[in-house]
Amino acid sequence: MKRISILLTGLFFISMVHAQFRSAGLVVGAGYTLVDIENAIDYSPLEDWDHIGVIFKALAEYEMKRDLFLVGEIGENRLYYWEYRWTDGYYGGTRWRSEWTTNLGISIKKMVNENVFIQAGPSVHIFNGGSGTVLGLLLAAGYELSLGDQFTLPFGIRIEPVFGSGIPVSLLANSGIRYNF
Description:
Strand order of the largest sheet: 1-3-4-5-6-7-8-9
Structural class: mainly beta
């Protein structure tokens, strides 16, 4: 994690020197996470659960050459939610939890034409509940709506597999805003 942070910081400063820093922005999204929750949390039977995935990410884009960008992301992913009944013989109740990860990713974004893009790359996910750090992927496609010279609204679809227990794969619709330098 420390090496990836150093790499991204180094790329940021190198890009600033060469005037290749293109934009910075935020992305939010929601969708469905494909996962076998009982396998992922190693508990059965569950009382209730959902597969709703949510993301909040900050990103920066560096122009490597015309229509090809290096994108760095840092953010939060909500993968799924569950609750179950418990008892220790004397007391009982319901326990619940929402599985979140903090992730750091780097990807390549290719502009197919002036507004359409595809994007792919690896990421590192740290489970906020303390259950470990795993690798993930990002596959995305979308459309960028330009709002003048300074702002862009990206709309897209993201697929984000996280290689942890149960291998959750989030299918997300997303949007956001970017400030173009």
